[in-house]
Specification:
Layout (H helix, E strand, L loop, with lengths): L2 E4 L2 E4 L10 H5 L2 E9 L2 E2 L2 H15 L8 H14 L4 E9 L16 E7 L5 H6 L1 E7 L14 H12 L4 E6 L2 E5 L3 E5 L5 E3 L10 H12 L4 E3 L4 H5 L3 E6 L3 E8 L2 E2 L7 H18 L2
Parallel strand pairs: 7-8, 7-14, 11-12
Antiparallel strand pairs: 1-2, 1-6, 3-4, 3-5, 5-6, 8-9, 10-11, 10-13, 13-14, 14-15
Bound molecules: 4'-deoxy-4'-aminopyridoxal-5'-phosphate.
């Protein structure tokens, strides 16, 4: 049995319903967040909320809950009802339900759907690293909004899978923006961590943000500047970040080896530091 939250009520996930006039269903007119939890502690909750507010603002969708403390309580209740000790929460807010018309409806209220899910991270991916391919970035110019409109991401993730790779890294004018489901990093020739700046061409990942904070706290230099494919091929290490994958070493790009083809030292240090930080949040 799996319980989800739909507009104020807790329901069995398989039979929960939302209108076919939901604008998320008709127009992808909505935003989402994926958060991880351990015990009943949601990791990086404030950062996710901040991004959620930014996404809602970007699409001019009304804030459905006036107070995010109530959202935290809903998440905790859902985690308890599902009897999970760790996993992920998916939260989706759409502009609401109304007859299909591009114009914003005047009277509808946002639809809020929240459910939990579990996904086991394959330890082999952390130990051996993953393969990545490069592709053109076909997305719009508001990638900073965590919109539920994910077609280019879906297609490029599928293309990667069909080529035996974990992820596609997208590029605009030969500069790597980010992965289809994750942020992209290198340890450049000078040994500095480098990643695309958090502007409208990427989703400002919560894991990306956390990693940058950890690195800076530990006096590891981080440059938020886009890198090119040739920077990537001459980099010492590469890795990706996301809430579900955390930090994964990248060992080949388009089948070309990065560094010595094994997870890099700096990447492993960052993974350890990140795990420590998560542990601290669990015990807060
Ligand atoms: N970029 C894209 C396109 C993503 O889909 C994700 C994961 N949702 C990320 C970056 C990583 O974001 P986060 O660390 O907040 O999960």
């Amino acid at each position: 049995m799996s319980i989800c939250y739909v507009n104020g009520s807790y329901e069995e996930k398989n039979s929960a319903m939302i209108s076919i006039q939901d604008r998320g269903f008709n127009f992808s007119d909505g935003v989402y967040e994926v958060m991880s939890f351990f015990g009943n502690q949601v990791i990086n909750f404030e950062k996710h909320i901040k991004r959620l507010e930014k996404s809602l603002g970007g699409l001019r969708i009304q804030k459905p809950l006036t107070n995010y403390k109530s959202l935290e309580l809903i998440l905790k209740k859902l985690i308890k009802l599902n009897k999970l000790d760790k996993g992920f929460v998916y939260l989706q807010i759409t502009r609401g339900s109304s007859s299909r018309n591009h114009l914003f409806p005047k009277l509808s209220k946002p639809n809020v759907v929240i459910f939990t899910f579990t996904a086991k991270l394959d330890k082999k991916l952390i130990l051996n690293g993953v393969k990545v391919r490069l592709t053109e970035d076909l997305r719009w110019k508001r990638c900073d909004i965590k919109s539920i409109s994910l077609l280019p991401n879906v297609l490029e993730k599928q293309n990667a899978f069909e080529e035996g790779m974990y992820e596609s890294w997208q590029k605009r004018k030969n500069l790597i923006t980010e992965g289809s489901t994750s942020n992209a990093f290198i340890v450049n020739r000078n040994g500095f961590i480098q990643t695309h700046p958090a502007n409208n061409f990427i989703l400002g990942g919560v894991t990306r943000d956390t990693l940058i904070e950890i690195a800076k706290k530990n006096k590891i230099k981080v440059i938020e500047k886009a890198f090119s494919s040739s920077d990537l091929f001459s980099s010492k290490e590469a890795f990706l970040t996301s809430t579900t994958a955390q930090i994964l070493p990248v060992v080949t790009i388009n089948e070309k080896t990065i560094g010595n083809g094994k997870p890099g030292q700096m990447t492993q240090v960052l993974i350890r530091m990140y795990n420590e930080l998560v542990k601290c949040q669990i015990h807060e």
